[in-house]
Amino acid sequence: MKIKFVSNLYPSKNKPYKGTFVRNVFEGFKSQGGDVSLLTLRDASDSKLSKLIDYMLFTWRAFVSGLKSNESDIHYIHYTSHSSLGLIIASLFKSKNKLCIISNVHGSDILPENSGIISRIKIMLSKTILNKSALVISPSGYFRRILSEEYAVPEKKIIVSPSGGVDASVFNVSRAVQKEFTFGYVGRLEENKGVFDLLEAFRVIQKSNPNSTLLFVGSGSCEAQLREIVSSMSGVTISQGVDQRELVSVYQSIKFLVFPSKRTSESLGLIPIEAMMCGTPVLSSTVGATKDYIVSDMCTLSFEPGNINELKVSLSVATQMSDIDYCRFSKLAIETANSYSSNKVIEELYRVLMSRFI
Length: 358
Description:
Layout: E1 2-7, H1 20-31, E2 35-40, H2 48-68, E3 73-78, H3 80-83, H4 85-90, E4 100-104, H5 117-132, E5 135-138, H6 141-150, E6 158-160, E7 181-186, H7 195-206, E8 214-217, H8 223-230, E9 236-239, H9 247-253, E10 254-259, H10 270-277, E11 282-284, H11 308-319, H12 323-338, H13 342-357
Parallel strand pairs: 1-2, 1-3, 3-4, 4-5, 5-6, 7-8, 7-10, 8-9, 10-11
Helix pairs in contact: 1-13, 7-11, 10-12
């Protein structure tokens, strides 16, 4: 059986943090002895014309691949709203038994950020490819419920697999690294990710905790605005996004990770799990799939999405945490994250695919 990964996102030299979990699953399948190949969107310039041409070529290549497929081929799509058009067109010329499709949904594939025309087209593409898929992979129980209840995907057709998991050989605890920052944020610098909420809450609690520090790691459309606000503050640092393997030093250097997202399309959230595997407790909003892994006492540090007052309380509680309690939270973080180990996750996913399609 040959498995061809079809994804518009994949890490590159210029954008090493894009689609890292696609690479992790691809490499994991290869290490399991799988016959795998890759069909990805070319990483070119950021001009609109270049992007359009690249997407047209990507769609064409997927279409041709679909036309050439046979009973022993599987096309494994990541990001159904962006990567499926070529195979949808190919399916018009191929029977289902000769064009086997597995769809792995993420984020706004099925939960758009708005109701605009682009979002409606993305939803239409996702619905179409989900109907044509032999198997649908959901990154969380939260997304499985949405697929079942809102997209009428049969339960027996859905399996949950958390986006390749987290590499425990990379993300781990280091007692030698100094906790340089009190709080850290890692991810896109966007309004709906809660970055301004975090900055405002931190500004308030810093008055009573002047030694507290905050690190932002990432880039996005709000970066310039964020830097302008931060320029008049002390104790706040903004760093560019880094490769996934470099993130471990970031997680190890912060005492707490803050995940203040307001996006209902948070299909999993590997960043909090990576941090927890490094022994770093997480202060998270209760958005999306976070309830799958923000469990037990870690819930006492949670807050409602967009509720700055609750976020201030969580930050304040964290700053006052005793060393004994911090060790307890750190241990809980590691224990929870261990169930998301990439070795376990990818091995189980590969086993399920082999049992279903061989």
